[in-house]
Every structure is written in C-alpha cells, then in structure tokens.
Design brief:
single chain, two-stranded antiparallel sheet, 26 helices, globular
C-alpha cells in the first residue's frame, strides 16, 4: 500500500509538472511573458528524479525478496536499483547548477541521467524477453543497452567539458553524438520489436534510421577532436555532415509515420526533404575531404552547398507545416471549444501565418485574372486554369522571352535535380543563402504567371528576380571580403581556432548594398500586387518614384563598396553620403503617399522642401566623386554637407508642424503653440546656419570638418530644446489627465527648463552673429545650465511616473 501511495504521489507530481509546462506555454503564446526553457527543464527534472528513485527502491525490494537474496536474479535487481539511483543523481546534478554560464552543463547532466535510465529500462526488457524465450528480441534490446551506455559517456564528456572549460567547443560535438546514439538505441529496440510482431516494413525503416544515426554519431565524435564554430575546416564539415544526417533520420521517421496514416502527399514531401538532407551530407563529406587535402577553395564551395541545402530543407519543412496548419485552420474553434487553449492558439498562430502566405499567392492569381478580364484578355477560365489567345507578335515574343529566362535559370544537369545549375554556381561562390532562397521564391512567381499565360506579369516578376540576382552578386563580394578577413585573422597565433575580422567596413559596405537590393525587390513585389487592383495614376507615379529612389540608393551603396575596395576613401565617403540622402528621400516619398499628410498643405510643402534639399545634396556628392581638382572636390563636398544638414533641419520643421496639427485636432492649444514655435526655431536654424559657417570659415579655413560639426551642434540646439519642451509638455498633460498631479508638476517644470534653454541658445547665436562673442559665450553657458537642469528633472519625472504607474496597476 505504501508503494502504491508513493507511485500515486509521483503520478500527481508528473501531472503537476505537465500542468506547469502548459501554463508556461500558454503564458508565452498569449504574450504575457517569455517562454522560460530553464524553468520547464527544472519541472521535468524534478518529476524524473522522483520517478527514478521510486524505480530504484522498487528494484531493491525485488532483490531483497526471500528467494532472490543469494541468487543471480537478486544481483541483477540490485544492480538495476543502483543504476536507477545513479541516473537520478545525474539529474540532481543538473538541477543544482545555478550558474547561468553553466546552464548547458545542467542540460548535459540531465541528458546523461536520461540515457542511463533508458539503458536500465532496456536491461529489464532483455531479462523479460529471455524469460519468454525470445532470443532475437533480447538481442535487439542488448544492442540498445550498449548503445545507450555509449550515449551516457558522450553526454558525460559534454557536461565535464562544459564545467571545466567553457571555451572548449568539443562539448557541442559530444552532446550531439550522445543525442544520435540515444536515438540509435531507441530505433534499434523498435526494429527488434517490429520484427517480433511481424512488421517487416517498419523494422526495415527502423534499421535504415539506425544506420543513418550511427554514421551521424561517428561524425560528431570525429568533429570533437578539433572543431571550432564559425571556422570552415574538416572538423566543422564532419559536424555539419552529422547534423544533416541527424535531421535526415528525423524526417525519415516523419515520412514513415505520416504514410502509415494515409497522408501520402505529406509523406512524399518529407521523403523529398530526406533526399535534400542526404545531398547536403554528401556536400559536407566532399568539403571535409577537400579541406583535409588543403584544397581550401574547393572545400569552401562544397561547404556552402551543404549549408544552403540544409537551409532549403528547413524552409520546405516550414512550408509544409504552414500549409498543413492552414488546411486545419478550422480546427482552432474546436480546440478552443474543448478548452485546449494551447493547442487552439498553436493552430491559430500557424494557421494565421500560413493563411497570409496562401492568400498572398491566391491574390496574385485572382487579381491577375481580374486585371486580364478588364483588358478582355481572358477567353475562357475553368478552375483557375487560364488560357490566353493572342496572335500579336509582341505577346508571342514576350512568351518566348519568359520561357527562355526560366530555362536558363533553372536548368540542371545530371541525375540530381534538387538545385538548378545557376543556384549551385552562386551558392558555391559564397552567395548569401537567404538571398538565394528569395530568388527561388521569385522564380516560382515568374513560372506561375507564365503558366497562367500572363507574360506581362511574368516579366514584372523577372525584373524583381533580376534585382535579387544583383543582390546575390553583391553578397558574393561580401563573402570574398569575409574570406580575406578570416585568412588574415587566422595568421595570428593568438586567435587560433577563432576568426575575428579586424576591419569589417568593406564587408559591411557590401552587406548594405545587398540589403538595399532586397528592399527594392520587396517594394517591387508590393507594387506589382497593388497595381493589379485599381490605383490612381498619381499613386502609381509616386510608387514608381520610390522604386527609382531605392534603386539609386543601391547603386550609390555599390559604388561606395567598390570605392572602399579600391581604397579610395574620398569617393567612398561621398557615395555613402549620397546613398544616405537617397534613403531619406525614399522615407519622405513614403510619407507623401499618405493621404493624411497630403491633406495638410503646410506639412506637405515642408516635406517636399526637405526632399529637394536631399536631392541637391546627393547631386553635390556625386559631382565631388568625379572632381579631379582637390579644391573643387572640397567645395562640392562642403556644399553637399551643408545642404544635407539643412534637409535634416527641414525634417525637424515638418515633424513639428505635424505634431502641431495633431495637438490642434486634440484641442491641446498650449501644446500646439509650442510645436509651432519649435517649427519656427528649426526654420531660423536654417537661416543661421550658412551665416555661422561662413563666419567660422573666415577665421579657420583649414579645419572645415571641425567647424561644420561645432556649428551643427549650435544651430540645432535651440530647436532641439524646444522639441524636447513640447514632448515633456505632452507628458505633463497626460499625467494631469491621469490625476497624477505631482508627476505632472515635474513634467511641466521640465518643459519650462527646456524652453529656457532654447531661448538662451537662440540669444547666444544672435550675439555671436552680431560679433559679440563674450555675450554669446555667456548665453551659451546659461543655455547649457538650463539644459542640464532639464535633463535631471526629466530623470526624476520618469522615476516618479514609473512609480505612479505601478501603483495604479496594483
């Protein structure tokens, strides 16, 4: 009875553990708090420890039975009891690790205990199988025992390595080897169990998985001898080959399980993923051979292919899961109705995400049909299968062009058709995998449109895809630079095993270019989809301007990267500044599309002024890059700097005017007046700026950059203080409305101090412009003092605000 009570208690603890995990997951899904894996692992650990200790006591009782004390059977159960206790001790050791730096060790100790527990369970199964004369089944369990013990050793190595030296990265390999070995043991047992009940097909599948996992474990153990993360070599190639095979085994299982329940389409998808992962493993194997033979470039090519194939497999899995979730989206309501909140939220999250993807695809097809119908291009339509009939030369030529483009970019030689020749080539050269993946997605868009007969739409998608192809080439340049940096870093003996780029500026320059091209593709994507619906010609023109601005940004960034590569710092600086101006122009154009802005003429005009200033600045920088005369270069560079600065001030004017309008609409007159004053001060700063620059340059023509920086701080200061005064005044009004009078008083005082600082800065500028330097310095000192007082008041107000908000929540 006592034993039954203890098992009942263990069951209750296990149920409590499950409930705790469900609560953590529910809190995470609902957004109440982050999901704490450490907490969840702790819950599991406590449940396991109590269960394993009970098993140990139970085994010891069997050993102490009168007929067992002096027998081999008694020795067997005593050893079983001891091993269960050791397993629990390992789990305890994991739960006692409280140093955040050793959290991995905690996981590894728990895994050690878990594998030892599995080994003990299999020993009991050996005994039970032999007792009923099932020699073959017992043989399978014996193998599982031995493999589980190997897993224990690997996990223990990982834990000890982690405790002794956090910089020893072999712990990752030992851990992964342990994972693979334990999974191998489990499938060895399942294969024997399947054979025992005559399930030959299941047994064969399990044996195939065992072979895959055995190879993965061997590779991880090889990798442990010298692997360092982020370093391409034979050890890391072995590690990644092992990862590919471990993933392959996982999806072999999925494919079989899903096929068993009749989901043949889904099973076929998983089998395709298995093939991709095997191909990835093959590439890593080739990479390891090449690295071993000191063929670094060849090794890199195979390594990059392996990386991309792993990424491709992960994406295809995600696509399948999202599609499946979308198909089962209706089950959400049922899950919620049955109070399965976590399951319901899970369906909702996945379904919502995948529905967006499916809707995006369907919208393209349906909107294309609507567009074509309005042009009277559709002659017949059945089940979304459209056929167009056009005898025009232009239409035929367009169809041929699209067909040719698709063929050239997807052709694949040999028996393996997983990757096209184009994709293989760019990946081997080091192209960014995410960008290549985007290209494949856009290629599919081209194919779909072409198959539906809308070659105009296909051509539009080709333009997007070709932009991504340029991004791919830029990413290859970035990869080349990273390789150079890696080679240089590894020459340093102090960095053995690591690589740290000492100068990432060129790599960053190419990365910026890649991102700019990706943004163009994204915007073209949106433009194409939006243009299929009814849009005004004016809206289309504005969107086209944005695309042109994005293209100019990318072009300037590419030129900046090329200039940095050729060590021409002057050109690099100018093209980088020109790109920045174009980025700001794009932001303003996006604002001007907003109808709310267009309804405010004063605000709209101000934004357009800023846009023109940025355009002038970009032109000055571009002219400077082609200037041979140093004096001419300096003059154009200064003009570009000055014009860009004025554009920034005009942005301040525009934002202040927007805020003033919003305050007026909310009947906050005091706030509206202060925002209008801020706008006026920014406008005055624009007037003051050229005068101050000229005055300072007359004194010190030799240090223009220093002068420009000093003047920039001075002319902006007054307007910025007024802007801060407006922001803090708004906070004061909000606090007053919330009946937080003391907090409101602090914010009002902060606003007044900011206004005082702004006024003193304005007087300092006027005094200096009139030639009264002494008064100017005095006013500037007073302005700085008021500025400091405002900052201190702000800090105090923020603390009081936080305290008041906490009390209100209580």
């Amino acid at each position: 009875m006592e034993r039954a009570a203890l098992w009942k208690k263990a069951a209750e603890e296990s149920e409590a553990s499950a409930e705790g995990i469900r609560a953590s997951l529910q809190a995470f899904i609902s957004g109440e708090r982050r999901f704490d894996w450490k907490e969840v692992r702790g819950i599991y650990s406590l449940s396991d420890i109590s269960t394993w200790l009970l098993k140990s006591e139970e085994a010891l009782e069997k050993a102490e039975e009168p007929n067992q004390i002096q027998s081999k059977e008694g020795d067997f159960w005593r050893e079983i009891a001891n091993q269960y206790k050791i397993a629990a001790d390992y789990a305890k050791k994991g739960s006692e690790v409280d140093d955040i730096r050793k959290e991995q060790a905690s996981l590894y100790w728990r895994r050690t205990g878990s594998s030892l527990h599995s080994s003990v369970d299999y020993q009991i199964k050996v005994s039970e199988a032999l007792a009923v004369g099932k020699e073959n089944l017992a043989g399978g369990y014996k193998k599982a025992v031995e493999i589980s013990r190997q897993a224990v050793h690997q996990f223990e190595k990982a834990a000890k390595t982690c405790v002794n030296n956090m910089l020893d990265f072999s712990r990752y390999s030992w851990h992964k080897a342990g994972e693979s070995l334990q999974a191998e043991a489990d499938y060895e047992a399942k294969a024997s169990e399947a054979e025992d009940v005559g399930k030959a097909s299941l047994a064969a599948n399990c044996r195939e998985i065992v072979v895959t996992l055995e190879r993965a474990a061997d590779l991880y153990q090889q990798a442990a001898q010298g692997r360092y993360p982020e370093r391409r070599d034979k050890w890391d190639s072995w590690y990644r080959e092992g990862t590919s095979l471990q993933m392959k085994a996982k999806y072999q299982v999925k494919a079989y399980e899903i096929e068993e329940v009749g989901e043949e389409t889904l099973a076929a998808g998983y089998r395709e993923i298995v093939a991709i992962l095997q191909y990835a493993a093959d590439q890593y194997a080739e990479a390891a051979l090449s690295f071993a033979e000191k063929k670094e470039s060849e090794g890199d090519s195979y390594y990059f292919l392996g990386e991309y194939l792993q990424l491709k497999a992960r994406h295809q899995v995600e696509d399948m899961i999202l599609q499946y979730a979308a198909d089962h989206y209706g089950e959400t309501a049922q899950s919620f109705a049955e109070k399965k909140e976590c399951e319901g939220n899970g369906y909702y999250f996945l379904g919502e995400k995948s529905e967006k993807r499916i809707i995006r695809t369907n919208t393209r097809v349906l909107s294309k049909l609507a567009h074509a119908d309005s042009e009277q291009e559709i002659k017949s339509m059945q089940n979304l299968n459209v056929q167009k009939y056009s005898n025009s030369t232009k239409s035929i030529a367009l169809s041929i062009y699209c067909d040719k483009w698709l063929t050239e970019t997807i052709s694949s030689e040999g028996s393996i058709k997983i990757l096209s020749d184009y994709v293989r080539d760019v990946v081997k050269r080091g192209a960014d995998h995410k960008v290549v993946r985007e290209f494949e997605d856009y290629w599919n868009d081209v194919r779909e449109a072409h198959e539906l007969g809308d070659n105009s739409l296909a051509l539009a998608w080709i333009q997007v895809a070709e932009g991504i192809q340029q991004a791919i080439e830029d990413s290859i340049q970035q990869a080349i630079e990273d390789s150079i940096q890696q080679a240089e870093a590894l020459k340093n003996e102090e960095l053995a095993g690591f690589w740290i780029a000492t100068d990432k500026s060129l790599s960053t320059a190419w990365s910026n270019t890649v991102q700019a091209m990706q943004k163009i593709a994204e915007y073209r994507n949106q433009y194409i989809e939006a243009s299929l619906f009814s849009q005004t010609p004016e809206m289309k023109r504005e969107q086209k301007k944005i695309i042109e601005g994005l293209q100019s940004t990318a072009d300037y960034l590419r030129k900046a990267a090329e200039a940095r590569a050729s060590k021409n710092e002057q050109k690099y600086d100018c093209f980088k500044n020109a790109a920045h101006c174009m980025k700001e122009i794009v932001k303003i154009l996006e604002k001007l599309i907003d109808r709310a802005v267009e309804k405010q003429p004063e605000v709209s005009i101000s934004w357009r002024k800023a846009l023109h200033q940025y355009q002038e600045s970009a032109e000055c920088y571009c002219k400077a890059t082609s200037s041979v005369n140093p004096t001419c270069y300096e003059s154009l560079k200064r003009e570009g700097d000055s014009t860009q600065y004025c554009a920034q001030l005009l942005e301040g004017v525009s934002i202040a005017l927007e805020k003033a309008t919003q305050a007026k609409e909310a009947n906050k007159e005091e706030l509206a007046i202060l925002w209008l004053e801020t706008a006026k001060q920014y406008e005055k700063s624009i007037e003051y700026h050229p005068q101050e620059v000229n005055m300072e340059l007359n004194r010190s023509i030799t240090d223009y950059d220093h002068v420009f920086k000093v003047i920039g701080v001075r002319t902006k200061a007054s307007a910025q203080r007024l802007e801060e005064a407006s922001i803090t005044l708004e906070k004061a009004i909000q606090a007053r409305e919330a009946n937080q009078e003391e907090v409101a008083a602090l914010w009002f005082e902060t606003s007044k101090k900011n206004q005082e600082s702004a006024e003193n800065y304005r007087k300092a500028i006027e005094a200096k412009l009139s030639g009264n330097t002494a008064d100017g310095r005095q006013w500037e000192g007073l302005a700085t003092s008021a500025h400091c007082s405002a900052d201190k008041l702000r800090e105090k107000a923020e603390r009081e605000q936080e305290f008041a908000n906490r009390n209100r929540r209580k």
